[in-house]
Amino acid sequence: MKVRSSVKKICPNCRQIRRKGQIFIICENPKHKQRQKKSSKGRATNLSKG
Prior knowledge:
Layout (H helix, E strand, L loop, with lengths): L1 E3 L10 E5 L2 E5 L7 E3 L3 H10 L1
Parallel strand pairs: 1-4
Antiparallel strand pairs: 2-3, 3-4
């Protein structure tokens, strides 16, 4: 699985889904599997404002 900051559909069979706040691309072709990077930046700033 490729981990990228920007995920895109590569072929017509690719599907974009969201699981637990992350965006995934799943496809019949295993080479097209992708996951978007987590951004811990936004979470840390929200917790520190408390």
